[in-house]
Fold:
Amino acid sequence: MNRLILNKIILLLSTLSAVIGIGFLFWILATLSYKGITSIHWATFTKDLVDGGIRNLLVGQFTMALMATFVAVPVGMMAGIYLREYGHGSKLASIIRNLSDVMMSAPSIVIGVFVYALLVDPFGSYNGWAGAVALAIMMIPIIISTTDNMLALVPTELREAGMALGGSKHKIILQIVVRAAKVGITTGILLSFARIIGETAPLLFTSANNQFFTMDLGDQFPSLTVSIYNLATYPDEASRELAWAASFILTMIVLTINLLGRFVIRNKK
Amino acid sequence: MTKNNLVMELKNFSFTYAGATKPSLKKINLPIEENKITAMIGPSGCGKSTLLRSMNRIHDLYPGNSYEGKINLYRADGSKQNILDLKKENDFIRLRQEVGMIFQKPTPFPMSIFDNVAYGLRLAGIKNRSELEGRVEKALKGAAIWDETKERLGESALGMSGGQQQRLCIARAVALKPRVLLFDEPTSALDPISTGAIEELIAEIKSEVSVVIVTHNMQQASRLSDYTAFMYLGDLAEFDKTEKIFLNPKEKLTEDYITGRFG
Amino acid sequence: MGGKLFRNFSFFSATLSFFILVGIFAILFHYAQESMHTFGFDFLWTEQWEPGEDDEGGIFGGYIPIVGTLLSTIIAMVIATPLAMGIAIFLTEIASVTVAKPVSIAIELLAAIPSIIYGMWGLFYFAPVVQSIFGGNGVGLLTAGIVLAIMIVPFMAAITRDSMNTTPSVLKESAYAMGATKFEVIKDVIMPYSKGGIIGSIILALGRALGETMAVAFLIGSVMHTVGKVTDPTTSIPVLLANNFAEAEDLEMSSMYFLALILFVVSFIIISSAKFYFLGRKVK
Structure:
């Protein structure tokens, strides 16, 4: 075949792929917005699931995600600091780095099964703690990888300059290196939060779900995503509408946090 | 200078980068003589690389740049074409086969040594294995790396040293039998020994191809070239035979630059 | 003093991911014992999933969910790979910056949408489309595979784009300078140069497709049936776990753990091979 024609065909197909990709984004967002907005009422936010609202679900989902963040951020950052600042170049650090990357892509349902065996089965009841732990396990490797990569961007000279002034290693790390990487790490935290807030599979049999408002983490805990899964498959129209409303709200939350993360980077640059 | 021994000629050539308000090159008039080496020197940012990259229109890979004036290419059959008139992809492909380019850093493709040299030939439609082999061998011999590579033509070109890679790139370009070869500071990333080998090679290939070389190394320009163009702030400040430029320049500016008073 | 504490805490945090991974394997392995002892390797070929009377014993085999997982993943990969390559080529080599930027952001947003949204949208809007074109009853292997593809495309395209972007522009220019067309530059220079990253992205996407739960759960049909036609409903490992894990008991529960273990080990192998052989960690 003529090479110029082949060239044109391939370029056309590539452009077409991009059009298809964008097309699906708009299709999904359009149906979601239409179904979501027409299904949202004031009561959606003020009532709990048992009365046809999602107030308790939003509170529950955020509670678990925030608790996961409070655990995952310090642990993940410290681990990232170890990999880049203390263990860098060592065999152990390289093994841990790779394992953490593997963990980042582990099937989320398997993490749910694991936490079920650990924190649900022995206590005989689904509970909010288990949900938060499952989300934390999802989040830790993302934070590790972000911290590790962002610290790698900090020039060595900065560390050496700190050393030359007589700073101790952990003070240099905390006061100079981490501060220099602050923006990147913040973005990483926001993006990983956006990721876990929309997770369903790890919560299905850890927190499970609760129709009522509760802050008791020892009990079955309300989850927005698990509710969407349940509601969408109920035959009655009201449940489906609520599922669409919840889906729309969830997507807006996730995309807003995501854009916020990107905005933080851009602002810095 | 008569027209018939010119290979290229720039007439009132101006070039403006995308988004820029002022042209980077202003009304350049420059003849490129056949089978000679023309060097372009000048301080960084003077536009010498920009000018070189106009001569095979590689600028057109990035949209929005604009040209004015003419760059005439004289073909072997005596025909003449203003390369700024080219619009179709096919014409660009032909232009680039006629006007080759060697870059600052060696650019071996991620494939074997043989395939690197054969690449342009294959693009040009040569499929016959024995013809390919013959022309690859000839090109590698021409670039003086045949002895170093004949035993390992099938190995990746990425394993060669920097100097070898650059000679491979020259072989790759020469294999296409271009009318003109454009060198953009071809030795600035190399050690002195490799530099010497490349300079020797450039001096040898001028019997087959006309050479335009951009360099920041004035010794290189004086050693190598027949003509020298001194560029300053987007203008062609002076153009003449190389010995004239280096021994007896007309312009004060040229003299100051060559004697190292600025640069 | 403070320095030592800080260092120890960071070391402990780093080793935690190791212990979690080992912990996952150990727990799944432990609880899968009963099923492993009862069925052995036959578990992989057995099609029945039948609890015994009075919830005692029964025959459980992983064949249907395993095949369902593999087939839905294959369908997704076959559709997603060329699409993702096309998008990456469009973003790096065709689109001008003013177009590439918003399209890039859109692709990344598409990657950020939670999988449950894909599932729900797929169930109510995409399944009817598949049904009208291919027949069947809407939900089934094909629908699940296509929606899975839509889900992994942005992820794959983003990584491929990033690795294609690492090709030095001077290398591309030197191919153009020899008279190559854009497609030839892509095929002969960019693709070979970024081969590792591209294959890595495909394998990572494969891992993601294998373990995806929610998008598939809405769409695959969730029935223990062997597929005859591509539009038939069936199930996959994550979907079976999502729907039935919580209610299972004894041997059935153990078989669920067995399936989870299989999924975990296979994903582990796929992801680590992508990491070690193709993505090659940049150790600076």
Q: What stands out?
A: The mean pLDDT of chain B is 90.
